[in-house]
């Protein structure tokens, strides 16, 4: 399989999942400024939408949505327990969390990436994103991971996008306006996830700094 990624982007999530599972995946870096891969391939021929992540299967089939990709990968090795079994209520709760992270957290960052052009909209978008993170912080008050006692694909997604914010305890990969300094439960969770071997391996494979 081939996973197309951009350094420090949301594609870090399936990158971590692939390493957690020990899957044989080729990681292909994409430059989203000119939409070419490290090998010079036109990325629009891989994903017509032009965004990452994209997962190309051995048979040539393609998946292009992160929250689907991580579940597909997890289901390849169900014994690793990165996602509950399909059809169970626990799986629907995981999908609920992934949808929340996609629509309320991930998309909440978009105006912050384009702060100059977004102008006054930042005053609306930033407080909403701060509220969502406050909820996550409270959610983590009595559990080590998003879904409870077990590390899951949801944690990889939150880890990837949280790296776009700022805090003394966080290695930020983007210059956005949101700060997490006061979110103590988020901080403890972040340190817990970052200590995982597969997470550190993925960060280094993307050419990013651990600290």
TrEMBL record:
Highest taxon listed in the record's lineage: Bacteria
Signal peptide per UniProt: none
Protein's recorded name: Glutathione S-transferase
Family: Belongs to the GST superfamily.
InterPro entries: Glutathione-S-Trfase_C-like, Glutathione-S-Trfase_C_sf, Glutathione_S-Trfase, Glutathione_S-Trfase_N, GST_C, Thioredoxin-like_sf
One Gene Ontology molecular-function label: glutathione transferase activity
Keywords for the protein's UniProt record, in alphabetical order: Transferase
GST C-terminal domain mapped to chain residues: 87-211
EC number: 2.5.1.18
PANTHER family, per the entry: GLUTATHIONE S-TRANSFERASE GSTA (PTHR44051:SF8), GLUTATHIONE S-TRANSFERASE-RELATED (PTHR44051)
PROSITE patterns: GST_CTER, GST_NTER
């Amino acid at each position: 399989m081939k996973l197309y990624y951009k350094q420090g982007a949301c594609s870090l999530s399936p990158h971590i999942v692939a390493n957690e599972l020990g899957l044989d995946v080729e990681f292909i870096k994409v430059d989203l400024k000119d939409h070419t891969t490290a090998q010079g391939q036109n990325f629009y021929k891989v994903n017509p939408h032009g965004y990452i992540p994209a997962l190309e299967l051995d048979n040539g089939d393609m998946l292009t949505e992160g929250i689907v990709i991580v579940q597909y990968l997890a289901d390849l090795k169900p014994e690793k327990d990165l996602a509950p079994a399909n059809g169970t209520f626990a799986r629907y709760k995981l999908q609920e969390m992934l949808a929340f992270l996609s629509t309320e957290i991930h998309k909440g960052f978009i105006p912050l990436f384009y702060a100059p052009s977004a102008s006054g909209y930042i005053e609306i978008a930033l407080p909403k994103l701060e509220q969502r993170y406050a909820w996550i912080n409270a959610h983590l008050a009595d559990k080590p991971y998003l879904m409870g006692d077990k590390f899951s694909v949801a944690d990889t997604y939150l880890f990837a996008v949280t790296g776009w914010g700022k805090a003394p305890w966080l290695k930020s990969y983007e210059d956005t306006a949101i700060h997490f300094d006061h979110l103590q439960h988020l901080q403890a969770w972040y340190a817990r996830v970052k200590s995982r071997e597969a997470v550190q391996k993925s960060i280094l494979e993307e050419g990013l700094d651990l600290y």
